[in-house]
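Input (Novel STAND NTPase 1 domain-containing protein):
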Amino acid sequence: MSTRSPFVGSRPFDTADEAIFHGRAREAAALAKLWRDHRVTILHGPAGVGKTSLLRAGVLPELGAGTDPRVLPIGRLAFLADFPLAALPDINPFTFALLASWYPEDSPTRIAGSSIRGLVRKNAGVDRHGDAVPVLAAIDQTDLLFSGTRDRDDHRRRFADELVEATAARHDLHLLIAVRTENLDELQTLLVRSGMPARQLTRFPLRAFSLSTARQVVSGPLSDTGHPLAASAGRLVDELGAGEAAIDPALLQIVCSRLWEELPRESGDDDERLPKAVDRALRDHCLRSLATVATAYGEWPSALTTWFRQVFGRKPDADGVTEGRRLTRDLPNTVVRALEDVRLLVADRPAGRRRYRLPQVRPRPVVRRRGREPAAERGRVARQDPVGPQAQLGRPRGERAGAGRGLRPAERPAERSAGHR
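Output:
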């Protein structure tokens, strides 16, 4: 039996994971064709649906490694290398990060002095007939354009202007832009205002798995492993779906990764042990994710846990939980959005304002029981939070212990992990 898990857990699939990437063959082929045939393609879907995974483990292998067209590395808008951007205040951080990821072999100094159009032109190639080789360039996690403060508006507008200029000037350049559906309208408006014809924008929606596809995603990587989860794929999907017609891809990977480690190798009563194992996987995912966000944003872990249980452990409002102007149910919007980044929430934006919900209904009873753990677990949380959750959420952010430790926008958990699936 293989001892290496064929499930990636909370991280996205990468190109090296092609062999264990299942359930998206049709989408990978269709998106690769759109990218080749159209000037600008926008891949959109909710957080956790698998946009990054589809790009890296599905579309790139579908295109192959040939030189016609030339496929650039996946572009990012967050610069992760150790380079003193603050020493170059006139640089647009979005442009610099994108070009550094598209052309990693170029020096930061060359990139700092280049525009998108200029660097694409310098690196363009021709085929044996002297014709320009098409360049396929993707930008992942474009939501970072819309996650900053107003002082980044100028950078965002200038970046869009450069991108549109490069697309208009380079007919060999084909863009694929990945964004959450909640930011789709804002992205399209930004590009059109910068001069891109709306007719050039081709949209490709990515949705959650159907139940049949989810079963394939579980059973496919388990073939020839001898793992008992292979025989339980259907029951697992039914358990996680809890009567819903779709399965959240990120949550499915998180649960399967845990069950790969936890399910006993010997045979047993799956009907009895599987629900309990899923409960534990969901509980631990909630614990780790809430702790990650609490640490990053200077919140008390128990205060954030209590807020999450009170807001999302109950029967939801028909329209979900609507984001306020600055606070959502007394919690800063930046913290609530971070909960989306770590796969605890998904959002839509039907009327211009975000609405949040759990990715599946199945975690709700687990969330509702948060705060009623064994005494040892409660003691561990209490030692971290001597004041108490209600008192902490009632105090101004500047008075909360650790509030000054909040991360700068470029260091938020989602940007460090490159994880928007």
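Residues 270-297 form the longest helix (28 residues).
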